[in-house]
Amino acid sequence: MWLTYVNRKIPIMRYFILAVAVIAMAGCRNFNWAPTDALEKVSTTPPNTVEAPVFAPAGGSYNATQNVTLTTSTPGATICYRNDGTNADCDNATATCFAGSTTYVGSINVPATITLNAMACKATMNNSVVATAVYTIDSTAPVISATAPAPGAYVTNTQVSYTLSESCGTGSITWTRTSGSPDPGSPRVQALVGAELTAGTHSAITLTNNPALVSGTVYDIAFNCTDAAGNAATTVTAAGVTFDNVAPVISGVAPITGSFRTNTQVSYALSEDCQTGTITWTRTGGAADGASPHAQTLVGLELTQGTKTNLTLANNPALVSGTIYTIDFNCQDFAGQNATTVTSTGVTFDNVAPIISGVAPLDSAFVSTTQVSYDLTEVCATASITWTRTGGSADPSSPHVQALTAGEMTAITHTNITITNNPTLIDGAVYQLDFNCTDSAGNVATTITRTNVTYDPSAVVISGVSPASSAFRNTTQVSYTLSENCASGNVTWTRTGGNPDPGSPRVQALTGTELNAGTKTNITLTNNPPLVDGAVYSVQFNCTDFAANASTPITVTNVTYDFTAPTITGTAPATGAFRNNNLVSFTYSENCASASITWTRTGGAADASSPHVQSVTGSDLNAGAHNGIIIANNPTLADGAVYTMAYACSDAAGNAATVISNTGITFDYTAPTVSISNLVNNSPLNTNKVLGSATDNLAGAITIEVQVDGGLFNAATGTPSWNFMLPTGAATWVNNTTHSIGARATDLAGNMSAVVTISVRKGNNHDVNGDGFPDLAIGGPNAPTTSTGKAYVFHGSSTGVIAATAIAANTVISGQAINDNFGRQLILADFNGDGFGDLAVSAIDNSASFGRVYVYNGSAAGLAAGASNFVAGTNAPSRVISGTSAEQLGSGLIAGNANNDGYADLIIGAVLNATQRGRFYAHFGGAGGVAAASSVTGQGEAVTAPRFSCSMALGDFNGDGNPDLAVGSEGHSTSAGRAYIYYGSAGTITGSLASFALSIYTGTASNFFGGSMAAGDLNGDGVTDLVVGGYGVTTNTGNIRVFYGVNGAGITLSGGAVPNATYTGEAANHYFATNMTIADTNADTFGDLIVGAHGSTVMSGRAYLFMGQAPNFPGGSATLATVRFLGDGGGFYQFGRAVAVTDINGDGRPDIFVGANFYNNPTYNGRVYGFFFPHAGPTFGATSRDNEITGSSAEEFGLSIGK
Hints:
CATH architecture of the domain at 250-349: Sandwich
Helix content: under 10%
GO molecular function, one term: hydrolase activity
GO biological process, one term: cell adhesion
Structural class: mainly beta
Protein name: FG-GAP repeat protein
Domain GH29D-like beta-sandwich: 57-132
Low-confidence stretches: 1-43
Largest sheet: 5 strands, mixed
CATH topology of the domain at 250-349: Immunoglobulin-like
Keywords: Glycoprotein, Hydrolase, Repeat, Signal
């Protein structure tokens, strides 16, 4: 809108300038002007500007279609409009509407909600401002639904609920009284405000304008609403709604508390009508009422407002006479409000007269007291008993009318009571007794009368009784004296000890003259008791006169009737027993007056004091079982002596028991001894069976038990020589773990030896027949001159290998085909966890150098179920693994726990894989033996002929508990050689290309570094160390490099790392480090290194033993070895071509075996030498061997020895 302003403080000239400026700007479209504080509005349209259009009717909400006209006060102006919500626009040059705007020519029909924008224009004048009008067309009335309270409802508050289909402009809820309590404020029209007018559901709300209703008033509630367009909703009315916020009141109830009633009538007053109500009679005492509580529902007029007097309910309860009730009055009004319960307690319902019964004394009774008995069916209000003399001694005070007191009038059985108002009767008088009672309702009981009752309070006296206390008797005769005649009497024998008497107590009635006054001496009663022999009794004498006066009982105690000699049973030690203590057991059938136990030596160690006659004393003489006791007079017996034990006893009557004798009882107080024979402390463990023996000072079976790792002791097999199988299956111990083994022996007398405990370190199981002696596997790969090859297994024994020639081996396996080179590599380990060592043998040239590996399971009979001579592939090998292409599968072969599950795993090398690139395959063991497929594999680097996997070793080089794998690659970098370490994780090794190994060490040209390797703990720090050989160093002098494992860090082979120690062979062409192995040969916890040098002394060969030590090896010449084993002097035997360690003689210390595969050159039979512990130094000739096994012609026996 254009505004013109005048500043009253500005001079006329300044006003003129302002006006000109305004006129100059009037031609600009959408120009806006607003007043300021200094300006005052004086007109609405600037000069030369068209007046804005005017809408008729004006914008707003309507409930019907509108016809809208547009006008402007400027004559001749054109009006343009738009109905799409955008501004209309007009060209003031031509007075025509711009595109999109419509020229107004007549009224505009508006049937629905719309926004109209209009502008007026005229040539030579400025356009008007845009005028806007919004029309809302709403012809639908709002709907009110889901109202509450419902018609006819009773409510305790003013909350309402309703749902509006749309928001309302105005609305109200009106409460109009229609009945009930007066409400001067009715009708109460309550306007809805704020959120109460919005569309949607309003549940249980209290209005802002909340009505003040009157309790007890009945209202019609009308809900009204009109929307913004003036559409009024249909009124919704809830008729007959009662507003009641006052709970009903119950008053004036009867029966009242503590009253007695003969009927079920009730009285009460209600302050208002009740919807529901009950009167409940609940039994609290008196007679039983199985139907209690009686909850009686009020019906009809019983629920109406007002007083009900002596009303018999429509639902009248069936009460039980004599029962005491609590009566609860309850009521709930129609608004759900509960009245406060009104309770009357202790209300007795009684419509039956009391009955007296069960009275005593009886007619013609004799009584010694004034006690009476009677039953009352209910409580009496008054009662009495009257004693009237009718004969006998005179009684001047008769009759005695004695009132009963409260407790004596209760509705119970009163038995033998002395009433509070007790009469003073005359001894010897005869009376009539009358019993009377009246209840609280005035009902009088029928009088009960007893006649001819004699009162006599004097008791009989008994004296002069026999037998006496603590007597032993063999008859049942008795003696006694009575002061007067008795009506009844008895003598009672009650068992108090000794033998059981099922008939006890034996109450023997006196009869005839036995009841008369006077003395009775040593009489046998007419009713004589059948007493039990050996039983102990108390004997009691009793008598009662005719007035029921009981004599004072006379009792004698501990009278024993004994006609039978005692018996002795349950004696121990039993005949033939072994005992390490003097505990005895026996059972006496009765108490003994005297007893003894006699030990008489009959054999074994001498006993000059025999026989030992020892008296039994004190409580040990008592009848019953005496188990595991040492008698007071305990004898000193001879260790190792054999005795007869005799038990004797005599009872108090002098009856002697039959003597019980137990013979051949050995007393042994010396513990046995036990030893472990095939293992010593810190032994490497290469068998799964522990062997041992036990000794005792006496002949007889000894029980041996074995404990592993501090657990429970379990029985070993055999005695005195014994054996025990260590855990198998999934429980098999993991390689290189340390375990304790304890043994103890127990002899027949229960003496237990001290526990002998050793510590062992788990290694591969070499014991194929499970006899506790590790076994030896040797290859002859060239046998029989055609390179078919053979493998030999020799069982260990206490003297080592018994066979002197290969063909005498316990098991001989031949290759399948010519040029197989069967036996080129061998390994012994328990792949299936059954406790027996299994044999893996490679035939590296099988199928044109594809290579093949055979696995045979061990058993109690040895390999292949005990077969002694067979061809590879027959006799059911547990697994046959064949190579692919010409890879020479089996050119490397090691075993150990690669995945820490206790089952030995087989790792196979194939040096010719992928044109001598080389590869290893890890086949995991399990309950089914070696897996057919490899679980992990690794391949050499892509260089010329690296011969990866020519040597391998397993160990934990970083001490993290996970197995790590070291792999040699002797041909890498023009035979410089290289070594790799794959660090395990999560309990298993991981493999891939050799270039991905975590540690790599490279030798120098022609070193053949990695041609051999061994792993073990050389410095005793608990972490595996690695030794790598390079037999080509310095013109085949050869050397070994020692790398110590570091806990948490492992072994660093890369980055120019320096070995911890290096040993070099003695001279050129010695080929030092052709083969090597590590084992603790002297059980000092340090791994010892055995190295072969088959070229020494013109190929005679040597082997070297470097004893492990802390902290580290110093390095230097091979001459520094602790022991040097010298080959035979014949020359060119290649002694040292193979080295291995196993405890072949089972003395707990590994033995060293050295192969000379060219022995007997030029026939090359081959020979293996065994050297038992201890290994004397500094040199040890081959001729000083402990075992010697010679192969057949040209087979190169000893080229390989299983490790």
